[in-house]
Amino acid sequence: MAAKPKLYYFPGRGRMESIRWLLAAAGVEFEEELFETREQYEKVQKDGRLLFGQVPLVEIDGMALTQTRAILSYLAAKYDFYGKDLKERVRIDMYTDGTLDLMFPIMASPFQPPKEKEEGLASAVKKAKTRYFPVYEKILKNHGEDFLVGNKFSWADIQLLEAILMVEEMNASVLSDFPLLKAFKARISSIPTIKKFLQPGSQRKQPPDSHYVELVKNILQI
Amino acid sequence: MAGKPKLHYFNGRGRMESIRWLLAAAGVEFEEKFLESAEDLDRLRNDGSLMFQQVPMVEIDGMKLVQTRAILNYIASKYNLYGKDVKERALIDMYIEGMTDLNEMILLLPLTPPDQKDAKVALIKERTTNRYFPAFEKVLKSHGQDYLVGNRLSRADIQLVELLYEVEEVDPSLIANFPLLKVTHGSLL
């Protein structure tokens, strides 16, 4: 019987959160080691499992996988969230990569000085409204289906839901001009595995607060 | 007969260069349309050719692909440079993501303000020497094979050669203590 995947990261969202979403969507139970001290982190670094000295690290199927996108692609393929052929896969890659481009500056913002942080978040909300969300609204409008690609739940849908919720935390009305995305959000949120992940008590992590930022800065010595 | 892929970008390396390397390594002839002005970019945006208003964009197999990684993944799969199964692909992805992180630092150097440049170059050298080159040297040493994954040429090897050339341009001495990487560098496919 296969062991559960094991995730190594700080006790917060960061770059690991999208991985947690994908595993949760697949209904896969996973374990976590959450670094509270520098010693814990150094121990993992020293025993050679971090190819580039960095987390996220996911131990799965006998591999020590690092690099967020490598992990996400592996999980998407393994749990059948990657389309039925190469043409569907390239669309999923385009959408998820675009969505991650939107999300990464938001993830980085808590670690920036106040002025850069504020500008970064404002820029992200603007990009969501003018560059990314219109694209997905149009895709849903053009095919009239429930999911972004191939009329089937995929990594693209999971990544987009995570992004929508992330932007909404900064600007609650961000979907006001996107009726199809509103319906999409409700629909994907009600998929049983997703619904479970969105409830209290799941392994979904909280938005970063000052305590989390201090902890990470301390551990990474930045 | 299918048309050649057509690449839309500025006349420079940037984020399109890895795509050029991969197509070239696969022996695929391609055309390029260089953006020479703001109007050129606007035109592409206005005719709906750029999904997220950005280049690179590659016209291939009836599609207008954007997002560098999506394009590279597609080309690598199509031309059989992406490993034999999902586990090999995971290793390839892990290696190329690390390469991309270092390549990104080098790629952005020309855009660095002059007063920050020295610090950025120092960081690139430090990361190359302490993080990235040791990782790839270790992989090659661990299996003793000529290629990074599966004893067969893949996009990981192509991207590594590209990276070694770029690092050499920053500082040719950085590769000095990495004998297996030197072999890769000299092997040019």
TrEMBL record, chain A:
The UniProt record lists the keyword Transferase: yes
What Pfam families does the database record attribute to this sequence? GST_C_3 (PF14497), GST_N (PF02798)
Family annotation (CDD domains):
GST_C_Alpha (cd03208)
Give the molecular function GO annotations: glutathione transferase activity
SUPFAM superfamilies, sorted: GST C-terminal domain-like, Thioredoxin-like
Gene Ontology CC annotation, any one = mitochondrion
Residues in GST C-terminal domain copies = 85-208
**Which class of enzymes does this protein belong to?**
transferase
The GST N-terminal domain is annotated at 3-83
InterPro entries linked to this entry: Glutathione-S-Trfase_C-like, Glutathione-S-Trfase_C_sf, Glutathione_S-Trfase, Glutathione_S-Trfase_N, GST_alpha, GST_C, GST_superfamily, Thioredoxin-like_sf
Instruction: Kindly indicate whether the keyword Transferase belongs to this entry.
Output: yes
EC code(s) of this entry: 2.5.1.18
GO biological process terms held by the UniProt record: glutathione metabolic process; response to caloric restriction; xenobiotic metabolic process
Q: Which UniProt keywords apply?
A: Transferase
Question: What protein family is recorded?
Answer: Belongs to the GST superfamily. Alpha family.
Recorded protein name is: glutathione transferase
Species source reads Carlito syrichta (Philippine tarsier)
Provide the taxonomic classification.
Eukaryota, Metazoa, Chordata, Craniata, Vertebrata
Gene expressing this chain: LOC103260063
UniProtKB/TrEMBL annotation, chain B:
Q: Which GO terms describe its molecular function?
A: glutathione transferase activity
Q: What is this protein called?
A: Glutathione S-transferase
Q: Which family does it belong to?
A: Belongs to the GST superfamily. Alpha family.
What region holds the GST N-terminal domain? 3-83
What is the E.C. number? 2.5.1.18
Coiled-coil residues: none
Q: Which reaction does it catalyse?
A: RX + glutathione = an S-substituted glutathione + a halide anion + H(+)
- List the Pfam families hit by this protein, alphabetically: GST_C (PF00043), GST_N (PF02798)
- What is the gene called? LOC103260052
Q: Where is the GST C-terminal domain?
A: 85-189
Name the source organism: Carlito syrichta
Q: Which PANTHER family does this UniProt record tie to the protein?
A: GLUTATHIONE S-TRANSFERASE (PTHR11571), GLUTATHIONE S-TRANSFERASE A1 (PTHR11571:SF107)
